[in-house]
Amino acid sequence: MFCKIGIEGNNGTDELGILLRQQVGLFWRHDYLLLTDGALMSSFPFSLPAKLSPALERVRGYWDTLKRTDNNMPFWDDVKLSALPDQADSLLLIDVFALPERFRFNTLGKDLAQRYREALISKFLDELDLRAPFSYLRAQCSATVEARAPTYFSDADYSRLLLPMWRNGRIGMLLGVIGWQ
After folding, report:
1. I want to staple 106 with a disulfide (CB 3.0 to 4.6 A). Which of 88, 93, 139, 140 is the partner?
2. Per-residue pLDDT reduced to its tens digit, 111-170
3. In CATH, what number is assigned to the domain containing residue 164?
4. Strands 102-108 and 151-154, sheet pairing
5. What are phi and psi for residue 55, nearest 5 degrees?
């Protein structure tokens, strides 16, 4: 049985962490909570599942091919949405702004725009009342920037993958794809 316990800044070595280890049987190991039965539970929000759907995996594979030398993510200007014509309708690009951290729709696939039935291009996420397929998108964008890694969200009707990209010396854009269940 898994239970999520979130204590900001706790690595399991302070008094509360020691109490949790004794009472609940949790042990910290890197970014995971190790339950006493040996199971691992990610403490990273929006973690990728063990297996992505073929549509999401194809976009992640494309993103991987764009990485230059030893960089852990590609540069935003290397992305060509035309390289993924079969998924163009479900792709999105999100601009990332720092100080304050904000996110803005840059590009939205035709299918996503039609399903949402509201103009979203050039709008900031925090100015919108987001609903499916963009539920929890602001939180996922923030987690993607903080983790500097791909993130995943899934709901009953869809799943979403966000992939970070460099721009001007920082993460400046996110490539996203939505897959329908």
Report:
1. 93
2. 999 989 899 999 999 999 999 999 999 999 999 999 999 999 999 999 999 999 999 889
3. 3.30.450.20
4. unpaired
5. -65, -45
Q: Classify residue 48: in a domain, yes or no.
A: no
pLDDT tens digits along 31-53:
444 444 444 445 678 999 999 99
Structural domain includes residue 70: yes
67, with CB counted inside 10 A (0-12, 13-18, 19+), is middle
Q: Could you tell me if 8 and 96 lie in one domain?
A: no
Cβ-based burial of 144 (10 A; exposed 0-12, middle 13-18, buried ≥19): buried
Reported residue count of the chain is 181
**pTM of the predicted model over 0.90:** no
Query: In 30-118, where do the E strands start and end?
Result: 32-35, 40-42, 91-97, 102-108
Dist CA 140 CA 117 (whole Å): 22
Question: In this structure, what DSSP letter does residue 124 have?
Answer: B
Pure H helices in 39-92:
54-65
The number of domains in the chain is: 2
Close Cβ partners of 59 (under 8 Å, ≥ 6 residues apart): 84, 87, 91, 161, 163, 175, 177
Q: Which domain holds residue 74?
A: 54-180
